[in-house]
Specification:
Helix content: 25-40%
Shape: globular
Number of strands: 20
Distance between the termini: 37 Å
Radius of gyration: 23 Å
Length: 510
């Protein structure tokens, strides 16, 4: 739907529906007359291509479904803007009538803080899905609602690429505001390292052009803590010719963990010593999971191997994993860059992209693997899965990226604080929606996190990647322990969002 409609219900009837859906009124303390005016004024201000949906509309469920059921929050109305001015109008009117609001890109955030949104306005950015390459071929204008697969394919049609995430269904800009890890990180750094400028709707509804020369203080803060300061409707990104026209992808399954687990992580430590993993070896991704083909009780390790180059170039690195004697493995070589997502099972049609269950993440940044700690994690995970079969789809994640591009950027030049981390690990409980299971998941996730942190290099503080953060971490763990960095972030908050309107995703001010 693109034309704005009142949706076959009268204005007052719609208001009644919204009151029922929220359990009372849109917001306690706002009288019904004000609520009616809110609906009327929003309809008058939106462009012809924008839309509003209420709970009785057939599109409402799809528009409010999130990847993880755990982070649904409470949405009373969905606005689908078509222009930055539509976004600004929704923000201003929500402020006037004291309605909380949340911008939604791909809906993949798993932070528990999202559950603090009540009777909210969802500003769905899906209409902003453009990927437009500049005339000189050095940059691309990417919309705030464009997903990773659209970016990869849109640029790939012209032999171009940029730093992206590895998940086809995640938005591009959303993760980019908090970092943005992916296969090209060794070449181009984080997603946020490639932002040239952006159009940002502030908490008061003002629309700002943000770059290194325009609102430069906000430009710094948006690159690493952007969820705290505004809604990005579009941004220009640096783009590049393909560094190589082909990739090698392989997947290994190890079922003899008694002998293979320690050797695997020792091998990864050698590959990635002090962040030295070559940029061509874009990612080595390891998960522990139950695969009933091998065992219903003993988790296996599955390792995905991503290499930018020819099979001949990749072979010495492949041999490291082949020599560990996997129970099974396969490879695809000469893959086009646009073919990596489906090969890895991370495209839009994959299981990993389907909503409807509960996903949570409990992340830790590390310098290297403590093999003893990983063995302890494996044993606890095995026991946990046996005791709690409801969590049978859960995984333990170990992410190793090439870091050359990330390390080439001065840590002080953006708000992103964790450039010294070499590894990202996380417990990812997956389970049916259940309040009781929520508690069990949090307890176990934090137990594993404590083990990893205790096994890290002595003296290192716990760090948690913003895009994965569960919501119970300290501000310092997410945004950094340097006092100057936190002071600068809080100063930006005071300047650009003094009423803390943007507070529903791991906020800097709690």
């Amino acid at each position: 739907m693109y034309a704005f409609l009142y949706k076959a219900v009268t204005l007052l009837g719609w208001l009644s529906i919204l009151q029922t859906a929220s359990g009372n009124s849109l917001n306690p303390g706002v009288d019904s007359f004000a609520q009616t005016k809110f609906q009327q004024q929003l309809g008058r201000q939106l462009s012809s291509q924008a839309a509003i949906y209420c709970p009785t509309d057939p599109q409402f469920t799809n528009l409010t479904d999130r990847w993880s059921v755990y982070t649904q929050g409470e949405i009373a109305v969905v606005v689908e803007p078509a222009t930055a001015q539509d976004v600004a109008a929704a923000v201003k009117l929500a402020n006037r009538f004291r309605l909380p609001f949340l911008a939604v890109n791909g809906g993949h955030g798993t932070s528990s803080v999202l559950n603090t949104l009540h009777h909210g306005v969802s500003i769905n950015l899906r209409n902003f899905n453009q990927v437009q390459i500049s005339d000189d071929g050095k940059s691309a204008l990417i919309g705030g609602g464009a997903n990773t697969q659209e970016v990869i394919n849109g640029l790939g049609a012209h032999g171009k690429t940029t730093a992206t995430t590895n998940g086809g269904c995640t938005s591009h800009i959303g993760p980019g505001l908090g970092g943005g890890f992916g296969r090209y990180m060794g070449y181009f750094g984080l997603i946020l390292d490639n932002i040239i400028d952006m159009t940002v709707v502030l908490a008061n509804g003002d629309v700002k052009h943000v770059s290194s020369t325009s609102n430069s203080d906000l430009y710094w803060g948006m690159k690493g803590a952007g969820m705290n300061y505004g809604i990005v409707t579009e941004a220009n990104f640096k783009i590049y010719d393909y560094p190589t026209s082909h990739w090698v992808f392989a997947e290994f399954t190890y079922d003899d963990t008694e002998h293979q687990l320690d050797a695997h992580f020792e091998a990864i430590n050698k590959i990635n010593a002090n962040g030295s993993q070559p940029k061509e070896l874009g990612e080595v991704y390891t998960v522990m999971q139950i695969n009933p083909v091998y065992s219903k009780t003993d988790p296996v390790m599955v390792v995905q191997f991503n290499f930018a180059g020819t099979l001949e170039q990749a072979q010495p690195w492949l041999d490291i994993f082949i020599d560990l004697h996997p129970a099974a493995w396969w490879k695809k070589d000469s893959l086009l860059p646009t073919e990596i997502l489906p090969a890895a099972g991370q495209d839009l049609d994959s299981f990993i992209c389907k909503p409807g269950t509960t996903w949570r993440l409990f992340p830790v940044g590390l310098k290297e693997y403590n093999v003893t700690a990983n063995r302890q994690v494996y044993n606890l995970f095995k026991a946990f899965m046996a005791e709690h079969p409801e969590f049978s789809s859960s995984v333990v994640q170990f992410e190793n990226y090439a870091l050359e591009g990330l390390r080439a950027v001065d840590s002080a030049s953006t708000a992103y604080p964790h450039r010294d981390d070499d590894i990202l690990v996380s417990m990812a409980p997956v389970y049916p929606p259940s309040k009781a299971l929520d508690i069990i998941a949090a307890d176990f996730g934090n137990k594993l996190r404590a083990i990893w942190h205790a096994g890290d290099k002595p003296g290192r503080e716990l760090t948690a990647y913003l895009n994965y953060a569960n919501g119970d971490e300290t501000t310092e763990a997410i945004y950094g322990y340097e006092s100057w960095r936190l002071e600068r972030l809080r100063g930006l908050k005071k300047k650009y969002d003094p009423q803390n309107k943007f507070r529903f995703y791991n906020p800097i001010i709690r």
